[in-house]
Amino acid sequence: MPKVLGNLPAVLVDHAHLERKAATSALNLEKYRDLFPRVEELNAIAIEELQHFQLVLDLLKRRGIPFGQPYPSPWIAGLMRSVRNGQRHQVIDHLICCSLIEGRSCEKFQFLATALKTLDPELAQFYASLVESEGNHYATYLLMAKGIDEAEADRRLDFYLELDAKLIVEPNPIPMLH
Ligand SMILES: [Fe+2]
Ligand SMILES: [Fe+2]
Description:
Elements (H helix, E strand, L loop, with lengths): L1 H4 L2 H21 L10 H24 L11 H8 L5 H29 L5 H28 L1 H19 L10
Helix pairs in contact: 2-3, 4-7, 5-6, 5-7, 6-7
The structure holds fe (ii) ion (2 copies).
One fe (ii) ion binds next to helix 2, helix 3 and helix 6.
């Protein structure tokens, strides 16, 4: 984590892209038949993520940090590679991946809120303000998966938690949030 705290501009740019990707993920989930009844909830999440994206962009502007290129996340790519094909399987896997990504954001924001308290109180406050929302997204996606097929969602959650544990120990030299 010192590599993250020592390079806040890169962390903020990465965070902006994280929110942008979170918005597109919510919209992408709307393609699944099983989620047609949840389209308005997904839209609400997409709007919220776009608002977060805008808040990070505002922060970048205030601090004179240029918006830049996103870094690929090996962790997210590793999770998404294991999404299976077939309507039912795919929607459940996709939801669980999104849920874990949101859960990880929630944890990281919580960590940054604490770690930045004295170093950068404005940023600490900003991260603290996002924790609840990302926690809600984590829970919403997980409940959506369970609502489609609870036993299958539980099985896949176990699978993805194991995969997450394997992926997270792989070294990543880039100062990013996940
Ligand atoms: Fe967000
Ligand atoms: Fe989120």
